């Protein structure tokens, strides 16, 4: 068989409509396969009564772009909700060992989880993964819909958790009111500084001392430690004004003690002014 005859046979095979259809079908299949490649997203799921709605909305909002793996809290494990098609459970061990997370979603954030995220506490699988996400710079979305605050929530208590929200935003966390809605992220340094007026954070201990300025007849104390605990609050004179540096962590119990002893808490601004 000579070369010319072989070329004629190859050309005839390639020109066959059936062969062209097969080639086009393979190309389309490859394109579909490429489209099907999704990013990995970890969903940190706390207990809520309406699991079905949350999980369905989560799938509709993120399912097209992400492979969603659900890390449940202990309460969720007990409840055993049914997952929509395409969502899968993941164990704490597997969540921690996986290094390819492109997004972390917290669709049912609880007050406890929020406070731990703001204070850097990592004592359970969910708070550990939030901490890892912030440490590694993984885009994180926190939904506030299930925090449970109402019109009857005391203002001071609500402000405490507003401070925690501002804190996690300053860490780079996106905060949304509901799943799939527009989120906010503090990128501007001025906004972060303003948010920090109420936010708790951590720091090394330093000596506390009296401030060099006084704006009224009240005793003004400059508190330089990085953590204000309840025992510290009792060491401050009643009805005094306490100035704390930006980023100072104030325990909830200390806040209550300061309030009961009529001690005014303020944040020290640049230049040592109120």
Description:
This protein has 274 residues and is an alpha/beta fold. It has two domains: 39-195, 3-Layer(aba) Sandwich (Rossmann fold); 209-272, no CATH class. Helices cover 42% and strands 17% of the residues. The chain has eleven helices and twelve strands. The strands form three sheets. A six-stranded parallel β-sheet has the order 3-2-1-4-5-6. Helix 3 links the parallel strand 1 (39-45) and strand 2 (66-72). The radius of gyration is 28 Å and the shape is elongated. The N and C termini lie far apart (97 Å). Residues 186-210 have low confidence and may be disordered.
In short, what is this structure?
The chain is α/β, with parallel strands linked by helices and 274 residues long. The protein is 42% helix and 17% strand. The protein folds into two domains: 39-195, 3-Layer(aba) Sandwich (Rossmann fold); 209-272, no CATH class.
Top-tier CATH class of the largest domain:
Alpha Beta
Q: Judging from the principal axes of the Cα atoms, what is the shape?
A: elongated
* Oligomeric composition of the shown chains: single chain
The main pleated sheet reads as:
6 strands, parallel
Give the distance, in angstroms, between the N- and C-terminal Cα atoms. Answer: 97 Å
Enter the CATH topology name of the largest domain: Rossmann fold
Fraction of residues in β-strands: 15-25%
CATH architectural group of the largest domain: 3-Layer(aba) Sandwich
Topology:
Blueprint: H1 3-15, H2 17-35, E1 39-45, H3 51-62, E2 66-72, H4 74-79, E3 88-89, H5 92-97, E4 101-106, H6 111-119, H7 125-136, E5 140-143, H8 155-170, E6 174-176, H9 189-195, E7 209-210, E8 220-223, E9 227-228, H10 230-234, E10 241-244, E11 249-250, H11 252-260, E12 264-267
Parallel strand pairs: 1-2, 1-4, 2-3, 4-5, 5-6, 8-10, 9-11, 10-12
Antiparallel strand pairs: 7-8
Helix pairs in contact: 6-8
């Amino acid at each position: 068989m000579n070369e010319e005859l072989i070329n004629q046979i190859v050309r005839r095979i390639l020109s066959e409509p059936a062969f062209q259809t097969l080639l086009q079908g393979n190309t389309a299949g490859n394109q579909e396969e490429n489209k099907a490649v999704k990013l990995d997203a970890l969903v940190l799921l706390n207990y809520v009564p309406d699991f079905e709605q949350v999980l369905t909305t989560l799938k509709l909002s993120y399912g097209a772009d992400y492979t969603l793996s659900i890390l449940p809290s202990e309460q969720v494990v007990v409840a055993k909700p049914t997952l929509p098609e395409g969502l899968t459970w993941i164990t704490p061990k597997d969540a921690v060992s996986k290094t390819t997370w492109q997004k972390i979603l917290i669709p049912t954030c609880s007050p406890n989880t929020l406070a731990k995220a703001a204070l850097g506490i990592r004592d359970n699988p969910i708070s550990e993964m939030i901490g890892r996400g912030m440490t590694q710079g993984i885009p994180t979305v926190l939904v506030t819909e299930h925090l449970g605050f109402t019109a009857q929530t005391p203002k001071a208590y609500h402000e405490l958790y507003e401070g925690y929200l501002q804190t996690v935003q300053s860490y780079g966390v996106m905060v949304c009111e509901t799943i799939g809605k527009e989120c906010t992220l503090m990128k501007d340094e001025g906004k972060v500084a303003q948010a920090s007026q109420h936010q708790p954070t951590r720091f090394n201990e330093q000596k506390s001392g009296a401030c060099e300025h006084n704006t009224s007849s009240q005793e003004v104390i400059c508190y330089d430690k990085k953590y204000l605990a309840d025992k510290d609050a009792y060491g401050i004179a009643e009805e005094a004004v306490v100035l704390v540096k930006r980023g100072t962590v104030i325990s909830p119990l200390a806040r209550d003690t300061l309030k009961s002893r009529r001690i005014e808490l303020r944040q020290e601004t640049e230049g040592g002014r109120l």
